[in-house]
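Worked Example 4.2. Consider the chain below.
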Amino acid sequence: MVSVEVSDAVVAVRARTRSGVPAGCAGCGQLSEWCHSRYVRRLADVALGGKPLRVDLSVRRLYCENTTCPKVTFAEQVPGLTVRYQRRTPRLQGLVEDVGVVLAGTGGSRMLRILNIRLSRVAVLSQLMRVPLPPLVTPRVLGVDDFALYGGIYGTLLVDATTRLPLTLWEGRDAEQLGRWLREHPGVEVACRDGSLTYRQGITAGAPEAVQVSDRFHLWQDLSRRVQDIAAAHRGCLPAALPTVSEDDPPPVEESTENAAADTRAGRHAQSLFEAVQALIRTGRSHSSVARELGLDRRTVGKYARARTWQEVVRRPPRKPSTLDPYLEYLRQRRDEGQHSEKILHEELQTKGYLGHYQRVKMAVAPLRRGLPIDEPRERPPSPREAARWITTHPHRRGPHINDRLPRLLDHCPELRTAHDLVRRFAAMLDNRDATSMPQWLKDLADTGLASLTGLARALREDRDAVAQGITTPYNSGVNEGRITDVKLQKRIMAGRAGVRLLRHRVVLIAHLRRRHADRPTVSPR
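Applying the procedure from the previous section yields the following structure tokens:
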């Protein structure tokens, strides 16, 4: 018997189980029809028509007819509707758990409130932590990587590289803990990692027969950083990448702007700091000592110590090209003719096809009012990072801009030429998946005399077996990096306040939840 009552606050469904139908005992499972009494269970269900749904279900309490069973009486359960000690239907309970997995405490509570299900954030987290983790199956290919947990504390994430699902995570990145986990879960055949000595020692101790693979991406990233260090050490060579200045080019306007910069507050401050730092450096003081005396950061002291003039510290970087550049000559001509209204100049440019804003025209002609030339875009030399990116980019993917400037830079700087040749040789090994030339490459890397490349050669020699596996095998740590991105997302959702246990629970469960919903067949409408 079922009856429905609708009010302004709730939809109430009253139902009653049938008498005479046997039910299984919760203790021994034996069927029984011997009714002891009845009582009403109030169950919350998913909202119906935008209103909370409550089910008032009259169920029986039955005697257990098995004399050896410790239970004397038991309450009958309705499959798909009731669960022992549960005041929600399985459908509502599953919704609460899934929302908690996806949105955590506060976000989950707000989403459930939209669905007319009122639970506090603490209750949502409590239901989330009660969800059991899926059984852990030892993977054949294991991915190991670290991630920033909070502050200066790091954590370790383990991923099944075959199924691409996270296995577990913990605080810290020590070799002993990783080795203990591998001993407790034998069967790992391949372990993908970065060049970390800690993880190398942990895998060797816990799974000595596993093949270790040093990730290709991390190898390339480490080499790129060393090239950037070389470019930074030879910063004076970087202007050689710029095209030569012809006699017809206008002279730079830096001299005319230096006096203007000296009249500004920032210019006076930079000039005084430059003189103070240079005076102390000339006495033989170290950068750290000067920083302590002047109350500056050590890197700031280094910047002022390397500068030849104070203008180098405050000089603005060359202006980037803009849509107004083709009209600068016209603006200069109209100002010479006596037109000083920026509004009229902007309207005239619009008739010529200029689509920019009035403020850009006003800022462009501002130097003319002070008797200075218009600040035209000037090409600047590449930064060390840009120079390293030019060198590490595949030749077929370099644009005309790079192909025009990189040869001039390499011809001027033998050190960068050496780094470029070594990078291209290593890229060929990665493209061909052939590590036969790696011993000779490591020898040439060590013989360059460059400290950055010599240190890299030493580190790669110590890990040469894993490096060779990273070059020749298809295994890599790409899935680890993807999962770490997911870990960072979950941390941000919880405002970085989640403990390791809650973070582990969500990271593992949300990956399985996505996989479960992705595997569901979709029914197309007819």
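The chain has 22 helices and twelve strands. The mean pLDDT is 86. Compare this with Example 4.1 before moving on.
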